[in-house]
Amino acid sequence: MIRRRLLQGVATAGLLLAAQPLAAAEPIKIGSFLSVTGPASFLGDPEKRTLELYVGKINAAGGVLGRKLELVVYDDGGDANNARTFATRLVESDKVVAVVGGTTTATTMAAIPVLEDAQVPFISLAGGIEIVEPVKPFTFKTPHTDRMACEKIFEDVKKRGLSKVGLISSTAGFGASMRNQCLKVAPERGIQIVADERYAPGDTDTTPQLNKIKGSGAQAIVNADFGQGPAIVTRNVKQLGLDLPLYQSHGVASKSFIDLAGPAAEGVRLPAAAMLVPDQLPDSDPQKKVVLDYKTTYESTQNQPVSTFGGHAYDGLMLLVQAIERAGSTDGVKIRDALQATKGFVGTGGVVNMSPTDHMGLDLSAFRMLEIRGGTWKLLY
Amino acid sequence: MSPGTRTKIAVLGVLLLVLLLVPILLPSAFHLRVAALVWINATAALGLALLMGQAGQVSLGHAGFMGIGAYATALGPKHLGLDPLASMALGTLAAGLLALLVGRPILRLKGHYLAVATLGLGILVHLVIVSEVPITGGPDGIQVPRLEFLGWRLVGPELWYGITGTVLLLAAWLALNLEDSATGRALRALHDSEIAASVVGVDVARHKLVVFVIAAVYAAIAGGLFALFNRFVTPDVAGFLRSIELVTMVVIGGMGSIAGAIVGAALLTVLPQALTLFHEYEHAVLGFLIILFMVFLRQGIVPGLAGLLARRRLA
Question: How many Cα atoms sit within 13 Å of B3 on the Cβ side?
Fold first, then answer.
């Protein structure tokens, strides 16, 4: 009898001892919902690979606050309704500490009410300005906005001593949104929009619109779109012999645009993230090391070229990890406070300085002005 | 009791039992949300099951009607200052009228012209929602105001579980009654042979039109409920893939079976959530399961299983 009690006592003590380090080493759960499949998969796939790659690296280096990270990723297929369901699941079932995800503006906007209600810090990887304007207490984002692209382009137009711009945009999501932002910021930047032409996503010819711009007295052309549209506009501008500076958006910042547009792309300028030209950055550039490191790590493990989109996920994860470390806690409100106190964080997208009223924290220096020369990108400034 | 009444009581009884059991077994907000989505999808699939199973017509743009219901509910309060419920009612009416307008000329023709027409209609609705950015919010979607009823703010998954469940129960009851009525019998007759049906005095075109309008109204109600429950809608709700998903729900569950439509909706809504375990292979597994169902239960799950049971009882 006594022996049995003794045994029980030893067993209980043993269990307690075993339980102690177990509780301390419980992983920190980070949730994510991304559009890994579907029309936005070219964004979602590198994002997922990046998150998995770096959570693995962080864990190998000892984790955060002495605890391992555990990543829970769901694929919303680009459907906003799925995104909301998965956001609910991350909060209710997985009980994640924070969320880094939301590939598109639609999926992000659908999930925001769920995560705000649960007071879970959320770093979105989507571009739309409405994500952080008006500022929501627990919502942050890493990518540049369309408005910044417009501002950067107009800054360059001004530098060339020009002021009359002909705008040509696609009626689809990205193009329409950037057009609105460009129209909004043009007066602030001393730019006059003398033509505002639009084309539908599937159009194979834009010469009528460009001819109107030609007749409007425009001194430069700005094209807001991504995918095939910009390549068509670029070729049409050359075919019409329009001798005006042509600006594309950050939406074309991939090698396939140069391939599609061919020699017509020569001399086209665009605002883009440092990720496109890591080798051309001067050594004094604070972003050079971060961007080169990410590029080498990603390309050596994933066997595919690096993209700015994966970079957004890298920035989101690193911002969060640093905020958790500074907060010294996994409490949602404390992480949020630490996140919005972020100062001087150097990411792939730029240098981030957050505040309670700015949940993106990027300024125009995050965009570089590039020109296409000799079939490749040339960093101007 | 006629066999029709017996099926009716059995289907409604099982449905009521499931509706009551789910919140007891799975009380988390996430599970209740998925369940509410099942009830909403099932409501839309029910209407389509009537159209496909009873009238033998296919609608390939059914999500378009869902989209009309959903966007009416979202836009009425925003642009016209209407009550969300009133907007939902208007949206449902609009969807019904549109179905009447489109169906009237087309359903006079024999064959599957309705499939082609609805395909175009669905894509048109989606196109309008995507491109009219100032009105609809475009591809990024739009917020739906909170529903208030007699000063009560209707929020929380438990409440919406109840609301959507009750609507489905009502919808199923009406569908079963329709199936068991003179209209239902006329529909089945014209499904088997339009010539034979018209010989015995069935107005073929009119009956098809009635079911088509009913199906559109069901979809619009489901869309409106979805908007109110989700409080956020995107053009996906009216997308072509959603239309195909609805047709798949009906086919997998068993064409012509009211219970089948609900089972099909439940399967296609719950499976993607359950299959997240398989990570990368999720879609492959989902496709494989659908193929298995189609190979081994060719008439659909509910009629297929019922047939198997009956055969075993005989043997």
Answer: 0
Task: Judge: A82–B272 Cβ closer than 8 Å, yes or no.
Answer: yes
Place of tokens 């966007």: B71
> Does any domain span residue A68?
yes
Nearest to B34 among A85, A113, A177 (CB): A85
Q: How many CB pairs under 8 A join A and B?
A: 66
A153 and A266 part of one domain? yes
Q: Which domain holds residue A83?
A: 28-144+288-366
How far from chain centre, in Å, is Cα A223?
Answer: 20
Q: Give me the interface pTM, i.e. the ipTM.
A: 0.77
A136/A159 same-domain check: no
Taking the mean position of all CA atoms in its chain, how far away is CA A303?
A: 21
Which of these, A37, A171, A81, A173, lies nearest to B234 by C-alpha position?
A81
Alpha-carbon span A145 to A138, nearest angstrom: 19
Helix (H/G/I), strand (E/B), else coil: A226? coil
Site of tokens 């075919």: A239
Q: Are residues A204 and A320 in the same domain?
A: no
In a domain, B146, yes or no: yes
On whether both A157 and A268 belong to a single domain, the answer is yes
Residue B209 tokens, joined? 């039109």
Domain containing B150 equals 3-239
A-facing residues of B in 208-227 (CB < 8 A) are: 226
B141, A84: Cβ pair inside 8 Å? no
* 3-class DSSP assignment, residue A33: strand
Q: CA nearest B237 in A: which residue?
A: A81
Q: How many domains does chain A have?
A: 2
What distance in Å separates residue B293's CA from the closest CA in chain A?
Answer: 24
pLDDT tens-digit map of B179-188 = 888 888 888 8
Closest residue in chain B to residue A36, using alpha carbons only: B280
Residue A43 domain flag: yes
Q: Closest chain A residue to B35 measured between Cα atoms?
A: A85
Q: Per-residue pLDDT tens, chain A, 381 aa: give them.
A: 445 554 455 444 444 444 444 445 789 999 999 998 887 888 899 999 999 999 999 999 988 988 999 999 999 888 888 899 899 899 988 999 999 999 988 899 889 988 998 899 999 998 888 888 889 999 999 998 888 999 999 999 988 888 889 999 888 767 888 888 899 998 888 888 888 888 887 788 888 888 888 888 889 999 988 878 888 999 899 888 888 999 998 888 777 788 888 888 888 999 988 888 888 888 888 888 899 999 999 999 998 888 888 999 999 999 999 999 999 888 989 999 999 988 889 998 889 999 998 999 888 888 889 999 888 888 888
Same domain, residue pair A117 and A57: yes
Looking at CA atoms only, how far is residue B34 from chain A in angstroms? 7
Q: For residues A57 and A69, state if they share a domain.
A: yes
Of B30, B138, B236, the CB nearest to A173: B138
Instruction: Judge if A132 and A152 occupy the same domain.
Output: no
Q: How far is CA B267 from the centre of its chain?
A: 13
Does residue A357 belong to any structural domain of this protein? yes
Same domain, A247 and A357: no
Q: Does B283 touch chain A (CB under 8 A)?
A: yes
CATH code for the domain of A246: 3.40.50.2300
SS3 B198: helix
Q: Which residues of B touch A113 (CB under 8 A)?
A: 231-232
> What residues in B contact A79, CB-CB < 8 Å?
234, 236
Question: Do the domain assignments include residue B303?
Answer: no
